Amino acid sequence: MNWLHLLRLGIVGLVFLVGWKARAVTVPLVAAYLLMLVCLPWRQRWKKRIGDLPATLACIAALLIGPLLFLAPIFFEFDELRDLLPGKAQTQAEIAAAQEWSRLHIIEPLRQLQSSLPEDMQSTLDGLDQKEWLKDIGPAIGRGTFQVVSSIVGFFGGMIGIISAIVLLPIFLFYLLEGAPWLPRIRAELPKSWRASFDRTMPKIQNLLRTYVRARLLVALIKGAMVAAILFLFSIPGAYTMGLLVGVASLVPVVGALVSTSILLVICVVEQGLFGLGLAIGIYAVTELVEGYVLLPRLVGRELGMSDFVVILALLGGGALMGFFGLLIAIPAVAVGQVLLVEYVRPLMQDPEHDDPGAAPVD
């Protein structure tokens, strides 16, 4: 590796460092770029009919109107959700009823088997009968949700960073659509020796990112529909609203699922007591398993040319290294890394002076 390769790596590392420090700006910029990739085919089609600027404004309007159409049915469930907000006396009565149900259907049957249980399990069983454990569910959910929200706010550098990101997103999207396509402009600024490599890699990366965004939105739609169908089947009020919330929140892996499930858990417990608690936990477990082991590998991984095992491994590794942000970028990062590996890393690993073309492959 000569000094030129080291210089390139240093520039790339510096760009990533600056981007991380200024993430309140770079995150909405990256999000706007991904949306631009999805909207670009629409803009090119509409540009021929209505012109350049109207096509750009039409794309932004479609991105604003589309979510509003999904939000419209929520107003028909508003009364159902409002009725779920109980008074203090009603809440205490429901807690007492749930405690009595748990005593009759869980604690008492277990006590019949208590003599055959180990001592440590017997002490745990005694603790379950204190009739105070159910009261801790609400505060525990509140603390967990507060911690998740605090971590997200801290990631953007505070509420001001979040507000600025929301404001900057449509502004960035407008200018990115107006200036598109960007690859020819970037290519023109590169040294001639870099252009051949640029032509081989950047169109592939751009197509991979566009495919990822489309597939990820499809996964969110399917997951939200699953939750809405299950809640409707069990007559839980606000089924569509909660399905929409779960679908949108799933775009932020793990963190979004925890926040939406916390809200879902409260609604299910208020509506159906302890059975609702089990239902909410079951919905979370089933949807996360289906998303992680079926939808993401099949819909996202295969669209990106990645095997199911690579997708699962990427999610586990990204979460272990960078938390929820690592989960968010794991799959597209691995897909882009495969392209860069073929173009830049493998040539550096080859040694023409010592390679033996006639050597037998290793089994």
Model description:
With 363 residues, this protein is mainly α. The protein has a domain at 193-348. Helix content is 82%, strand content 0%. It contains 13 helices and no strands. The longest helix is centred in the C-terminal third of the chain and has 49 residues, at 255-303. The mean pLDDT is 76.
Chain-wise SSE layout:
Blueprint: H1 3-21, H2 23-50, H3 52-71, H4 78-83, H5 88-112, H6 119-128, H7 137-155, H8 159-179, H9 183-189, H10 192-233, H11 239-249, H12 255-303, H13 308-349
Helix pairs in contact: 1-2, 2-3, 2-8, 2-10, 3-8, 7-12, 10-11, 10-12, 10-13, 11-12, 12-13
Helix and strand string, N-terminal first?
HHHHHHHHHHHHH
Q: Helical residue percent?
A: over 70%
Distance between the termini: 29 Å
* Spatial extent as radius of gyration: 26 Å
Tally of separate helices: 13
Features:
single chain; 363 residues; mainly alpha; globular
Quick summary of this structure?
By secondary structure, the chain is mainly α.
